[in-house]
Amino acid sequence: MPLAETFDYVWSDEGPAPMPGCRVAVPFGRSRRVGLVIESAGGSDVPKDRLKAVLEPLDREPLVGGELLATLRWAADYYHHPIGEVVRHAIPGLLRKGRPSTPTAEPAWRLATAAREEARTSAGARARRQALALERLASGPATSAELRRAGVTRAVLTRLVEKGMIERLEGGSAPAGNATPAAPDRGPVSAEPPPELTPDQARVLEAIAVRAPGYAAFLLHGVTGSGKTEVFLRLISEQLAAARQTLLLVPEIGLTPQLVARLRARLGDRLAIVHSGLGDAERLDAWRRARSGEAGVVVGTRSAVFAELAAPGLVIVDEEHDLSYKQQQGFRYSARDVAVVRARRLGIPIVLASATPSLESVHNARTGRYRRLEMPSRIGAGGQPRVVLVDLNRHAARGVLSTPLVAAVERHLSAGQQVLLFLNRRGFAPVLFCPTCRDVEQCGRCDARLTVHAGRAELRCHHCGAAKPLRFGCARCGSERIAVGAGTERVTQELQALFPERRIGRLDRDATARKGALDSVLADVQSGATRILVGTQMLTKGHDFPNVTLVGVLNADQGLFGTELRSDERLAQTIVQVAGRAGRRDTPGEVLIQTHYPEHPLLARLLTHGYAAFAELALEERRRAGWPPHSHLALWRAEAAQRGAVFALLERVAAESREATESVEVLGPAPDPMERKAGRFRGRLLLRSSSRPPLHALLARLVGACRTWPESRRARWSIDVDPVDT
């Protein structure tokens, strides 16, 4: 496990010592470990007779280049996190175990001579992945790595070999990587001409094209359906034509299959995909392709921000406002912010894009750090959707489906269109309640109620994962309990009763847990088989549903009265993002938002004046209250099995902070909003400063001291710089 400090070793062999960024094998205790050289120093604070020697170098050239190593060291300092843990995010697991950075010869495969005709004629009747392999090999031999990138596993190849359908080429193939970076392939590969640009798209591309060479940051504020993806494709194609690479960050790769499909259709197989769902071999293959320059486009989630690039030319952060870019455990970095730092260090432009930019990015555009580019119009004649507030105080409802919403669903379905309903709560119901003794089923390990999952006949905690069988009889009084409230599972059931002849799909974490389930749900929507789609926050992740003309927000009140700093911002972003799924191109859309508070100022301003006006008002409120982006925060968290241990540590941090400086305001300590989770107590302390230097100076002092305190041995603690929840 990476430790907080670095360790000194001596180089005793002949010749130059390994350069920073190279891996070395070193003795560590009684074991042999793989380490990364951070720097070569002229001396050490450790006595010479206690220094151990490097066992052997593992790389001739740096595995981590100078720019990336400098970025990793900056990230460790800025987020006050151990450098070893930071480095772990940039190096694939197999390389951390000592695997060579350049591959040995990859085995290559071809169709068996006697089976070529049969393979071509019967591929469609076979299992999908077998058919995929046969179709790929019908056009010529391919290596295991190439087939793996196409979705063909080793098990599939083994089955086809056993059937005599494919055979291995003698001698394999040449290694895919090398020590000398290769330039990305030039030019687009699509045979179809790209679509004609809209005036908005043309203006944005021209503004980016006429910039001065070097670093520049652009905030692309484009409404949903305005064609931001086409702008990305044009920019990426320009980089490929100039033999440069593009790093494209997306919130969640599994939720953006349409984007990846469009990239492949336009750019071919010059993509390296990086996300947490990859196996070790797939992750190493993607890393090698990015580092060698074979991949002209690196597409990935937040960890892809640390990809080693051979010829970097552009960084794009899609849906830059999304909370998924902030790591919430361990190394709590913001991939969006690190991407800006990397672009500046590399001297290349970065485009941050969103229909609902974060308030921090809006502020950076106002102060001149970013250049703001607008795409205010949708493509096609459909225009912006018509938005209607449904006052739940005045209309009858069946569960959470109001009469106006049900009537609208009937109208759009009768017109041959599709409907999307949003409720950010999965499960059947959030509460199992006894009306006789008023008991509520609680989680035994968390300060939370168990959620009813009727389909699985269980009660489940959405925080620690604890589950128990669903029993409607009350354990205290024996009365029959009732499920109160609604989640996506219950809404789907109610819709099925109302529209028995219509196919209804569900898009939430439960419905898409099985491998391939997400692709199946989305394919059914795209084909038109699913007429109504019910979903959670997953609906806002960049999907394009061209036949959806009605969007219903079932409960807009969930975020109206939140106490968290960003609750208003998150609610506004969610409403705008979900509403943007209604109507595309020449088809007008309609949005119904159900609420008990139709006159709430946030809803009124958002729906009357738009997201930009909401952002301006929210920024002014933040300025008056002294909250980010007009101040800087760090959240010191602690957790332990005993509540006293948590607050003993936090009280000491608070006392040391107040004694050390008056430039940093100390707020707390206080319990977490959910104080007990998975059987452990949690607390927090908030540090706020009008400028970064005194805050980071205090954190650096506290981190070093805290490791020596007896209180820190009884509680786990962590620091979250620029937290997204307070």
Any overview of this molecule?
The chain is an alpha/beta fold and 726 residues long. Helices cover 32% and strands 21% of the residues. Helix 11 (280-292) links the parallel strand 11 (271-274) and strand 12. It is built from 21 helices and 32 strands. 41% of the residues are buried.
Quick structural summary:
With 726 residues, the chain is α/β, with parallel strands linked by helices.
How are the elements arranged and paired?
Blueprint: E1 9-10, E2 23-28, E3 31-36, E4 52-53, E5 56-57, H1 66-78, H2 83-88, H3 93-96, E6 108-111, H4 116-122, H5 128-138, E7 142-143, H6 144-149, H7 154-162, E8 166-168, H8 199-209, E9 216-222, H9 228-241, E10 245-249, H10 257-267, E11 271-274, H11 280-292, E12 297-300, E13 312-318, H12 335-346, E14 349-354, H13 359-366, E15 371-375, E16 386-391, E17 397-398, E18 401-402, H14 403-414, E19 418-422, E20 431-433, E21 451-453, E22 458-460, E23 467-469, E24 482-484, H15 488-498, E25 504-507, H16 517-527, E26 532-535, E27 548-553, H17 567-579, E28 590-595, H18 601-609, H19 611-625, E29 632-640, H20 643-660, E30 665-677, E31 680-689, H21 692-706, E32 716-721
Parallel strand pairs: 1-4, 9-14, 9-15, 10-12, 10-13, 11-12, 13-14, 16-28, 19-26, 19-27, 25-26, 27-28
Antiparallel strand pairs: 2-3, 2-5, 6-7, 6-8, 17-18, 20-24, 21-22, 22-23, 29-31, 29-32, 30-31
Helix pairs in contact: 1-12, 4-5, 17-19, 18-19
